[in-house]
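Q: Is it fine to ask for two folds in a single conversation?
A: Yes, each is treated on its own. Send the first.
Q: Here.
A: Result:
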Amino acid sequence: MIIKFGIDTNASLHLGHLYILKKIEKYMKKDDVLIFLLGDFTCKIGDPSMRKNYRKIFDFNIKKNIKTIIKYTSIFFKKRIFFLKNSFWFKNIRFEKILRIFNVLGIKKLIIRRDIKNRLENNKRVILGEILYPILQSYDNLIIKPDIELGGKDQKINFKITKEIQKIFTKKKTKFIEFSLLEGLRSKKKMSKSKKYDCIFLNDNTKNIFWKILKINDLKISYFINKFKFLLKKYIFFKVNKNIFLLTKIYFFYNIIKIFKKNVKDFNFYYKFKIKNIKLENENIIDTLIKNKIFFYKKEIKRLLKQKCIFLNNKLLTNRNIKIKKNDKLVIGKKIYIIK
């Protein structure tokens, strides 16, 4: 089976692409082959899907972006994959071939889509290239002839137009599968390459990734952790107090850095966040904390238990008489203690 997945190369890969790539990896079987289409020609026009304004045409450092895309996809994607550039056939194409496809569709079908219709009604600029974009995308399918094409839900209209064109020019039927899109860091809209503040790029610095994650809304961090459960080896999520939300963000950052295979020599450089080992005493929490000189009075520990600030193995601790074991994890405010 030939599976097609394509992106425009106007920017590098971001967290949303990683989410879709990992879903594709689960979907694929042993004999399947993924053709990763690099839209180095179509990126100069830009996909009009879910856009309120037209995209200005300028130099995107396409060659540099292609290198980073190939680098990171080869790291994350472990199954068979081939990279193709659509400029390979668009540069040498005759105008007669494109004209045949243009004559098949009426202008109404291309303008009916909401994003372009709203812009025309509000007297906003619409470029002819944006209207013709889905036709160019369908031409990719006429050359590759995939069995399955995968994409986000924003590609729904583009998929419909490619279906119509394929019926006329080829006998082969392509199955189209849509995936749910990842939301932006600060907004409920899809994570977009054009909004740099709203997405995490895979080639971002560790500092940039850290501060972007730290600025995520406290309630929204749970959304990202639930989406990336299959990638995060160690994660915690609590709904109790602000300190725990902060811890959750730091854990998410730490795991994302590991996934991206970036080096962080000193994790405390980003935040005063320490993991200490403490000795077990009488299988009691209060005794262990006092004898290890973390607290000096029992009243302090009882007060923190009432305030719901102590967690044992990622669960809120309410009973002070509960027995603890070796390798248990205690989280108190911003600090983590491992019992040994």
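Q: Second one now.
A: Result:
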Amino acid sequence: MSDTIVYLFIVSVISLLLYIISELISKEPLIDFRIFLIKEYFVGFSVFFLLLGFSMYQVFYLLPLYYENLKGLSTFDAGLHILAFALFIAIFSPVAGILSDKWNEKYVLYIATVIYLISSIFILPNLDYYTPKTQAALMTIPLGVSMGMFFAPVTTLALRKLGEKTSLGTGLMHYGRFVGGSFGTAIATNDLYRHQWEHFEGINAMQDSSHIRMFIDSVKEQLVSLPEALAESKAKAMFYGVEYLQSLNFSFQDTFFIAGLFGLIGALPVFYMIVSDLLEKKVNQ
């Protein structure tokens, strides 16, 4: 991470704090921050910002890269394999909306959160270079189900009690989603790159130089028609490619898992709402 990025981040945080202070003391604020005192809206906004932005956006970003960069599929083929995931989002989105209206949006959100956490923490990290393409597509179906069930209940929950503040609440939620998503994709990019080279260096550190020499010599024997220097270079390039592929393979697994952990953090507002509702019921009884 460069010093410039760190300095800009510090300036951004300070600027945000100054803006919030100015809004709180202003007689005609642009944003009425009292909207966050409404529990349902606070939970909905937090879930949008943290769970959707910091976790789901990482998954949206990583899946095409997994199919193209690790599995070696073309962009078209990668899109076909993501289709199963996208199809279940499309199927369960209206289902979640119907259940939110007829049942209770909180229960639908609880179910979606549990399915998402199971998918992102326990299923996605098992995707690797050796996973068959069709199996990889099938493994993303529970993820599609959870994401399809996510948007309707969290939106209904957040906006139901806003009244005249609905337009403000809608704007803030979309803004929070995009800001959280920018953080999510940046984190995924950084993690994927960092873990790849950490694994690459680790693989290099554990190599036995004599075995590497044997591998290079065996490859050179298959390239006897080439000049010795060129055959040596090609053999080393082949060995480098294998190391690179394995390090990228491990990096995708690590990054998928970290995205799931961010989902766990993003689910904290949902857990807060569950505990809060249970306490309210206990008091009312």
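Q: Anything structural to flag on that second result?
A: Two points. Residues 166-205 form the longest helix (40 residues). DSSP finds eleven helices and no strands in the chain.
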